[in-house]
Amino acid sequence: MTGNDHDILQVMHTMRAMRRLKPDPVPDQLIAKILDAGVCAPSGQNLQRWSFLVVDDVDGKKFFGERYAYWLRERFAASLRNVDDSTSEGRQIKAALHLGDHMHEVPILLFCCGTRDWPFAVPAEQRVGRAPPSYGSIYPCVQNILLACRALGLGASLTTMHQMFEDDMHSFFGIPESHGVVSVIPIGFPLGKFGPVTREPAANKTHFNRWGQHKPGLASPVA
Ligand SMILES: Cc1cc2nc3c(=O)[nH]c(=O)nc-3n(C[C@H](O)[C@H](O)[C@H](O)COP(=O)(O)O)c2cc1C
Questions:
Q1: Quick check: 175 pLDDT over 50?
Q2: From ligand 1's centre to the CA of 163, what distance in Å?
Q3: Does domain 5-192 have CATH number 1.10.486.10?
Q4: What predicted TM-score, i.e. pTM, was given to this entire model?
Q5: Pairing of strands 155-156, 179-188
Q6: Closest Cα to atom 22, ligand 1: which residue?
Q7: How far apart (Å, rounded) are the C-alpha atoms in residues 108 and 23?
C-alpha cells in the first residue's frame, strides 16, 4: 500500500477490459491478493454474499471455453458480420472473439458467485422459482477484483456470457443451487499494454438538483 490517493484514480482510468492474455501461470499469491481485495467490497447489511470458484484445470477451462465461444458467436451473430477493425466497436468485437477462442488457455477463470435473494421490489406472493443472485452485493466485489488485477499488472475482463449455459456449469463444477454465478473473470498477464479507458464525460451524464439542470464547474454537458 503506497498511501497515495492518486494511485487508485490512475488504476481506474486505465482499467480497460484486457481480453488478450498470455497463457503463463499466475502465482497463487497474486490470486490471493486479488480475492482479498474483492472481499473488501461493501455488501447489503455486510452479509458478504460472495463465493468464488477459481478454475485453472484443463478440463474445467475446456468445458467453460467451448460453451463460452459457442454462445458468444450464437448471441452476437448479427454484429459479427463485417466487423470493421478501424472502429473501436469493431476492435472490441475482435478482442471479445479472441477471448472466446482462447478462453481454454487463460490461466485463471474466476467465477464470482452470489447467494440468491429476491429484490425488495418483488412482492412475496410473486416469488416463484429461483431468486436471482444478489447482483448488487456482488458487483462491488467484482469491480474491486478488476481494479486489483490492474494494480498488480494482470489483465482481466468482466464477462457474463455464462448466463447462456449456467445450469450446465452448476452440474459440471458442483456449484450449489443456493448460489448464482454473477460474473466470470478471465485473468492472466496481458499480451498488450494497459491504456486509458474511453468514456463519455461524467458531465454528460450528470444533473443538478432537478433532472435536466446543470451546474457549470460541477459537471456541465460537454458540447
Ligand atoms: C454487466 C457487464 C457484462 C459484460 N459482459 C461481457 C462479456 O460477456 N464478454 C466480454 O468480453 N465483455 C463483457 N463485458 C465488458 C464490457 O464489454 C466492457 O467493460 C466495456 O466494453 C468497456 O470496455 P473497456 O473498459 O475496455 O473500455 C461486460 C461488462 C459488464 C459491465
A1: yes
A2: 14
A3: no
A4: 0.94
A5: antiparallel
A6: 17
A7: 9
